[in-house]
Amino acid sequence: MTERLILFSAPMIRAIVECRKTQTRRVIKPQPHSHPTQVACLVWETSQGQFKSPYGQPGDKLWVKETFLPRLQNTAAIYRADLNEPEASGIGALYGGWKPSIFMPRWASRITLEVVSVKVERVQEISEQAAASEGIQSITPDWKKNPVGVFAVLWDAINANRGFGWDNNPWVWTVEFKLILLLDGLLRPL
């Protein structure tokens, strides 16, 4: 078993804790030019060479990095996902600004996930059920009418400016996971 890190935004942290998010899709870099074929456990081969999953294999652990404020008044950290926007802005300003998730050290992480499966696919291959498993429910109350369409909007909001928009149909790592550890349980519905 290996432990790796993974970053999530505050809305996705809330979706994980509420068991609405059990999958994530991440762009493969560099993009394969041909269809990847699995040649070994979590290794895919193309004409460009081999691509190994940076998210591990089933049974591996992912420790979650999220936006936070480090140790304050005998607490481990304050997590942006625990607060609504007015609270988050006020507390962040009071304590000198939120630390981006990329800078979170391991000791401050409160969420651990276990990898259930990893596969390679094109982002547009997502099913309605898989789109729902991406935690899209809070984006619009009508998400059930078109979960793939709602996911496509979310995907573009995150990836289009980086050249990996929905219409480009990039190759992605599809990681299914389950929540196995949540320290302190401070998250609350907003």
Tell me about this structure.
- The structure is a single chain.
- The chain has 190 residues and is of the alpha+beta class.
- It has two domains: 3-66 and 111-179, Roll (Archaeosine Trna-guanine Transglycosylase, Chain: A, domain 4), CATH 2.30.130; 67-101, no CATH class.
- The protein is 19% helix and 32% strand.
- It has a five-stranded mixed sheet, with no helix packed on it. The protein has a three-stranded antiparallel sheet with strand order 3-4-5, with no helix packed on it. A two-stranded antiparallel sheet has the order 7-8.
- A hairpin with a 2-residue loop joins strand 7 and strand 8.
- It is globular.
- The mean pLDDT is 90.
Give descriptors for this structure.
190 residues, alpha+beta, Archaeosine Trna-guanine Transglycosylase, Chain: A, domain 4, 2 domains, 5-stranded mixed β-sheet, 3-stranded antiparallel β-sheet, 4 helices, 32% strand, globular
Indicate the radius of gyration in whole angstroms.
17 Å
Overall geometric form: globular
CATH-level-4 superfamily name of the largest domain: Hypothetical protein
The end-to-end span amounts to 35 Å
List the total number of helices: 4
Helix content: 10-25%
Order of helices and strands: EHEEEEEEEHEHHE
Helix-and-strand structural type: alpha+beta
Poorly predicted regions are none
Write the CATH fold name of the largest domain. Answer: Archaeosine Trna-guanine Transglycosylase, Chain: A, domain 4
Total beta strands: 10
Could you say what the CATH architecture of the largest domain is?
Roll
> What is the top-level CATH class of the largest domain?
Mainly Beta
What number is the mean pLDDT?
90
